[in-house]
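Hypothesis: this fold can be encoded by more than one sequence.
Test: take the structure tokens below, design a sequence, compare later.
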């Protein structure tokens, strides 16, 4: 019989001395990294992009705020503190962010539970209705709700004969903004919270039932704590989205509820108040950074755990209380109607003429294909759609192709240099789009040596740069995770067989991460198709994308004749494109998982 000696303190000290230090590992990683000419080229190009489009614009903007005449000045802050509109917009932004953190989570968690956790009749139909938030958001959702409930909206015109004293502008102000952003903001719950709920261990739920726990206790003490990290992550994104909200407050907020981002646009349009717009954007950026720091510290302080190492597949739970069952079904289908009716009416009225849209009186003779014919045959009507598709497709491809190399370098060579690059590439995630857009406008309104002495403000390139910058953090995080998921043994086998690093990347690694790259491309294209926050600052006057055209139609400022009818057609086309992209990303993977279970 043999015994195994326990290492003593001196033995551990000797082993620690023989083990390579962290500093030595970093130095070796840097040396290996600099041996590859391709890696050097990628790092140089990345450094140029970071300095030119992420660092210099923000430094230039800060210089105009703090050193307007070459000397330190606090005049911009004095103007901010003395401006009642500006201070009120700051307060409104925080009110909106806090409100959405509550309302979006309440609605989002409920729709996930009734489609994925509880046994609800027609849950598949409910899921399809709730999933419209994935293809019907942003400025097109805002325009759709305004068409439904605005002063000239379809529902408002139906209510006026019944309630003659009703205010036609009843759907306006903070409540309208919160309602629209709540239902448009639950897409992340449908995607990420559903996936987190599917990983909850069903054997734990069964054990709790055997111990006499009620359905409410199981939900409160077992299910929700397990998915709490994902709820917290979604809450952070929701809070930041509410803080920098643009389209909904601008269209539905009215004069009494303006938030920071629309106010920045208002001030930026006048040269005399551009410094006030810049300091507002700076305040928004600082608020975002502080909140990210505080919320991340709060998240790290929590304790989240799952009690099973071998989870079993979740089975839907029946609601035993008859009253509770009826109430949950009623709320579920009420929310279904709220989600489905606006996009459904958009589709219906896209086939009608301007008079029908204005009156809301649907008749068989009102339906026509003239709107669709005009969009696809009239160059002026087709132009916004082509501009958005070109911007979305080109920028999505550029981001994925470029970040593929960067993500591989960051994942392959772990050292302070690559970590520094990775942190800098996350700047667009921690700074609002309005701050970045203002920085680009101010910096490139004069010739810059970093771009060959050219002026980029007023060109189509600047908006493309903003789109690329905005999608880099999301793309980098997912592609890096995809590379980490590739087994090291495959790369080692290729190296043993004599394959070069680039050959291994091209023939071994790239095919394995290509499905993830294709999914990211589709999601980025989806998000850029109707982007409004960056486009409203940086779009070329002759090449207006769909986000601006649709938003202008909500104010009756279209230049294409029947702008409202055409905006409905654009919205339907965008929903088709977005739905196709979402099916390509998630539909196939869901079908594959179902086949695997069978």
């Amino acid at each position: 019989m043999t015994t195994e000696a326990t290492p003593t303190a001196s033995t551990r000290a000797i082993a620690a001395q023989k083990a390579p230090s962290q500093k030595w590992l970093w130095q070796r990683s840097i040396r290996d990294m600099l041996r590859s000419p391709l890696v050097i080229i990628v790092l140089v190009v990345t450094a140029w992009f970071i300095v030119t489009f992420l660092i210099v614009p923000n430094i230039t903007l800060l210089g105009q705020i703090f050193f307007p005449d070459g000397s330190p000045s606090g005049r911009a802050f004095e103007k901010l503190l003395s401006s009642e509109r500006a201070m009120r917009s700051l307060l409104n932004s925080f009110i909106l962010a806090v409100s959405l953190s509550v309302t979006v989570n309440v609605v989002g968690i409920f729709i996930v539970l009734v489609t994925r956790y509880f046994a609800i009749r027609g849950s598949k139909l409910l899921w399809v209705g709730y999933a419209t938030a994935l293809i019907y958001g942003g400025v097109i959702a805002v325009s759709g709700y305004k068409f439904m409930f605005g002063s000239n909206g379809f529902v408002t015109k139906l209510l006026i004969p019944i309630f003659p004293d009703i205010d036609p502008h009843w759907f306006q102000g903070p409540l309208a903004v919160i309602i629209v952003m709540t239902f448009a903001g639950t897409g992340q719950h449908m995607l990420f919270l559903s996936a987190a709920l599917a990983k909850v261990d069903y054997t734990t739920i069964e054990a709790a039932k055997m111990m006499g726990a009620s359905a409410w206790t199981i939900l409160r003490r077992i299910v929700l704590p397990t998915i709490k990290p994902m709820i917290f992550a979604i809450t952070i994104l929701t809070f930041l989205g509410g803080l920098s909200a643009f389209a909904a407050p601008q269209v539905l907020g009215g004069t009494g509820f303006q938030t920071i981002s629309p106010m920045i646009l208002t001030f930026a349009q006048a040269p005399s108040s551009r410094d006030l717009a810049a300091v507002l954007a700076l305040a928004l950026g600082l608020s975002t950074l502080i909140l990210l720091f505080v919320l991340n510290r709060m998240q790290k302080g929590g304790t989240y755990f799952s009690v099973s190492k071998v989870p079993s597949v979740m089975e839907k739970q029946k609601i035993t209380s008859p009253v509770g069952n009826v109430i949950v079904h009623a709320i579920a289908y009420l929310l279904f109607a709220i989600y489905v009716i606006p996009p459904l009416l958009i589709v219906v009225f896209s086939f009608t003429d301007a008079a029908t849209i204005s009156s809301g009186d649907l008749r068989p003779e009102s339906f026509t294909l003239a709107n669709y014919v005009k969009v696809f045959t009239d160059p002026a009507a087709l132009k916004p759609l082509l501009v958005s598709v070109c911007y979305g497709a080109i920028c999505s491809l550029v981001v994925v192709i470029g970040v593929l190399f960067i993500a591989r370098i960051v994942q392959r060579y772990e050292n302070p240099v690559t970590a520094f690059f990775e942190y800098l590439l996350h700047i667009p995630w921690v700074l609002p789009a309005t701050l970045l857009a203002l920085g680009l406008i101010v910096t490139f309104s004069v010739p810059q040596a970093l771009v060959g002495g050219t002026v980029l403000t007023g060109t189509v390139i600047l908006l493309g740069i903003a789109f690329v910058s905005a999608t880099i953090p999301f793309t980098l995080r997912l592609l890096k995770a995809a590379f980490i998921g590739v087994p090291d043994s495959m790369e080692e086998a290729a190296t043993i067989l004599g394959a070069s690093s680039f050959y291994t990347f091209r023939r071994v690694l790239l095919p394995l991460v290509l499905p993830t790259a294709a999914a990211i491309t589709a999601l980025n294209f989806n998000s850029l198709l109707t982007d409004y926050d960056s486009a409203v600052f940086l779009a070329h006057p002759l090449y207006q994308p769909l986000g601006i055209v649709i938003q202008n139609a909500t104010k009756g400022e279209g230049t294409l004749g029947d702008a409202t009818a055409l905006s409905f057609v654009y919205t339907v086309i965008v929903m088709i494109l977005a739905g196709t992209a979402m099916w390509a990303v998630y539909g196939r993977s869901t079908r594959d998982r179902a086949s695997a279970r069978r």
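Confidence is low (pLDDT under 50) at residues 1-6, 303-310. The chain is about 75% helix and 0% strand.
Hypothesis status: open.
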